[in-house]
Amino acid sequence: MELSLEQVEAEIAEKTRDWQVFSDARAMIRARVLEVRDSTSPLTPLPTWSGTDAVLGSLDLAIHAMEHTLEELKALRRVAKPRLTLIDGGADGAE
Fold it and tell me: Rounded CA gap, 40 and 63, in Å?
């Protein structure tokens, strides 16, 4: 499947937004875990709950996959970008 430069740019923008949302979610969860690490709440304490590790692990996997996809898209963009070619129009200044 070939993509145009415009399609590659659109995919980069979309995947960057996805990456940002997932990264923000991970940061917010991690901050909350640190915030309540000394909590004495007896009901499913967030820092030691296995679900917390599962969620953070899943987010890490998704974020890593998104980063890999973005790297591939950026490589495609580098190849797809039109190159600037200077053409000598024959004006050599000898008139």
Answer: 32
- Helix ranges (DSSP H) in 1-95: 5-35, 50-80
Amino acid occupying residue 62? A
User: How far apart, in whole angstroms, are the C-alpha atoms of residue 36 and residue 52?
Assistant: 12
Q: Nearest to residue 3, comparing CAs of 76, 82, 66?
A: 76
Number of structural domains (the chain) is 1
pLDDT in tens, 3-27: 888 999 999 999 999 999 999 999 9
User: Who's near 15: CB < 8 A, 6+ residues apart?
Assistant: 66, 69, 70, 73
The total of other beta-carbon atoms located within 10 Å of residue 18's CB is 15
pTM: 0.76
- Single-letter amino acid, residue 57: G
Q: Is residue 90 part of a domain?
A: no
List the domain range (segments joined by +) for residue 58.
Answer: 5-36+47-78
